[in-house]
Specification:
Blueprint (H helix, E strand, L loop, with lengths): L3 H9 L8 E15 L2 E11 L10 E2 L2 E3 L10 E3 L3 H8 L6 H15 L4 E3 L14 H13 L4 H8 L1 E4 L3 E8 L8 E10 L13 E7 L1 H9 L7 H10 L5 H5 L9 E3 L5
Parallel strand pairs: 1-9, 5-7, 8-11
Antiparallel strand pairs: 1-2, 1-4, 2-3, 2-10, 6-7, 8-9
Helix pairs in contact: 2-3, 3-4, 6-7
Length: about 260
């Protein structure tokens, strides 16, 4: 929770007092899009609420703080072990919580759940299996803390599939004129089939699938606001032409860290 003094300092444009650095995870959700005879890589970006305390009106990827519940037992069918995840992040333990947080934030902010049915191993199809009320209720419960992501998965007979979630970069908000600081791990993940993006209309007010190149061009033209970490990660994504190229992505060396305000 952010202190009132820090909030007030940011509003006044003054240096904020000591702000605790919070662990966070951000996920770049990608998909292939047909453009005539060719296929291009698209990434999901969301516009933060214009009155947000942090990164107001900026276009970002789904993401946020790693919660305590993200480190608890969660039904997972595929993905790294905690040992593997921690090694990739350069942590002694607890690395898997960042993967779970990335999946949770993707669900909360974009309505996309990286989950399969436990009995059939088929991807969840929210377009036919879940009505809008059921989807909204589960998202709301997870976001409010009324239910953990693990509890929703178990109740729905689902398991997370984190095999396509790849760690790509590490950014830390520097001290300065901000009431929030994050130690953020950025991930990239393929969007599952048969699920439709829907921003939460609270923290985020717009959503769009775009090629990295188009997003960067709109940022340069001043049409949209992009933070430096978002720009850097879009530039990295622009080197890939399809999801298949990303599937072979290797994890970067641990502690490959950049210092600037993270878009979470």
């Amino acid at each position: 929770m952010v202190g009132a003094a820090s909030e007030a300092a940011e509003v006044r444009g003054e240096p904020a007092p000591h702000v605790e650095v919070q662990p966070a995870a951000t996920v770049m959700l990608v998909r292939d899009a047909a453009t005539g005879p060719d296929v291009s890589l698209e990434v999901l970006i969301l516009r933060r609420h214009p009155e947000s305390v942090f990164a107001a009106d900026a276009w970002v990827f789904p993401g946020g703080r790693v919660d305590d519940a993200d480190g608890l037992a969660t039904p997972i069918t595929a993905g790294p072990s905690d040992e593997e995840a921690s090694r990739a992040l350069g942590l002694p333990s607890g690395g898997l919580a960042y993967w779970v947080a990335a999946a949770r934030e993707c669900f909360e902010e974009a309505g996309i759940l990286l989950a399969r049915h436990a009995d059939t191993n088929e991807w969840l199809d929210t377009t036919t299996e879940w009505g809008s009320a059921r989807l909204a209720r589960n998202r709301r419960d997870v976001h409010s803390g009324a239910a953990s992501l693990a509890a929703v998965l178990e109740a729905e007979g689902l398991v997370l599939d984190l095999s396509g979630v790849h760690y790509v970069s590490h950014w830390i908000t520097p001290p300065g004129r901000t009431a929030r600081r994050f130690d953020t791990r950025f991930f990239v993940a393929e969007a599952p089939p048969d699920q439709v993006v829907s921003h939460d209309a609270a923290e985020t007010v717009e959503s769009v699938w775009t090629t990295p190149a188009d997003a960067l061009e709109r940022g340069r033209a001043g049409e949209i606001t992009l933070l430096i970490p978002t720009i850097a990660n879009l530039e990295a994504l622009a080197r890939f032409s399809s999801v298949a190229d990303i599937r072979g992505l290797r994890q970067p060396p641990p502690r490959q860290t950049q210092g600037f305000a993270c878009p979470t």
